[in-house]
Amino acid sequence: MLDPVPAARPATGLAVRCTRALLSPWSRFSLLVAVLLGAAATMLLLEPQRLLATGWPAELSGGAVAVILFGVAYGVCTVAFVPRPLLNLAAGALFGTQAGLAAALAGTVLGAGISFGLGRVLGQDALRTLLRGRWLKAADGQLSRHGFRSMLALRLFPGVPFAAANYCAAVSRMGYPPFLVATGLGSIPNTAAYVVAGSEASSPTSPAFLAAMGFIVLTGIGAAVVAWRKRHRLAAE
Predict the structure, then answer these.
(1) How far is CA 106 from CA 29, 93, 111, 210, in A?
(2) 48-95 confidence digits (pLDDT tens)
(3) pLDDT of 235 over the 60 cut
(4) Distances (CA, A) of 49 to 2, 10, 63, 68, 188
(5) Whole-number Å distance between alpha carbons of 208 and 19
(6) Which residues contact 156 (CB under 8 A, 6 or more apart)?
(7) Neighbour tally for 127: CB within 10 Å
(8) Residue partners of 188: CB distance under 8 A and separation at least 6
(9) CB of 207 closer than 8 Å to CB of 188
(10) What share of the chain is helix, strand, coil (3-state, %, to 5)?
């Protein structure tokens, strides 16, 4: 009579333990930090702000291809924490108001989408365990329950840094489509103001330039007032 075949034992070797460690939430979060630090260091070395002084490469200076390439570069730069106002000014200076606005908005949505995806895949599981503070829980609850209107408000008022809003939304339970749509719509006014300012920078006394700068100043003051009132309301609660 044949002996029964022993049941296969679950794999518990070194390879399995290493795989589990590499796929753990904090390992993925460490990878996210490494990716972002590497991207930021690369941008510091490349100095994309030189576009404002030297202009777009001559071989890519015209046509839809140049606008598309700039939009892609814009998105990558925002992931690497290059300030969007600088990129918006460059878009206006290089391509004018209409094409510059199209490139800047496309780059804004692209960069936000990349950041959201990185944060959701690599950082959400680890960072959600840190949501213990009152403000953090309030922000998470607002984005999780009212994601579209909350993100729309964050984009309309430039008080919250672009990258911070992206990763806060990624850590929350907000959906991907509402995040992208709210980002695109909410970014239009402020982005347009900077693009117009960049396109009219050679004529600082023109009505368009003055109107754009006035809008930027007013939205900045409005964002400060809203943040101040929100802080005192949370403190009172």
Answers:
(1) 27, 17, 9, 25
(2) 666 655 666 666 666 788 899 999 999 999 998 888 999 999 999 889
(3) no
(4) 77, 55, 22, 18, 22
(5) 57
(6) 186, 189, 190, 219
(7) 21
(8) 105
(9) no
(10) 80, 0, 20
| Cβ neighbours, 10 Å, residue 227 | 13
Q: How many CB atoms neighbour CB 73 within 10 A?
A: 19
pLDDT at residue number 56: 62
Q: What is the pLDDT of residue 211?
A: 93
d(CA 237, CA 198) in angstroms, rounded, equals 43
Single-letter code of the amino acid located at 157: F
Tokens found for residue 57: 């490469």
Tokens linked to 17: 């333990």
Tokens 């749509």 correspond to: 181
Q: Find how far residue 18's CA is from the centre of its chain.
A: 32
CB–CB of 81/40 below 8 Å?
yes
According to the model, what pLDDT value does residue 180 have? 95
Q: How far is CA 79 from the centre of its chain?
A: 6
Extract the tokens encoding 123. 């950082």
Which residue type, as a one-letter code, is found at position 202? S
- List the structure tokens of 3: 């002996």
Instruction: Say how many residues make up the chain.
Output: 237
**DSSP per-residue codes, 201-233:** TT-TTSHHHHHHHHHHHHHHHHHHHHHHHHHHH
Residue 209 has pLDDT above 80, yes or no: yes
Average the pLDDT over 92-99 and give the result.
91
Q: Within 119-159, where are the H helices? A: 124-127, 134-145, 147-156
Note the pTM of the prediction, 2 decimals: 0.78
- Is the distance from CB of 162 to CB of 84 less than 8 angstroms? yes
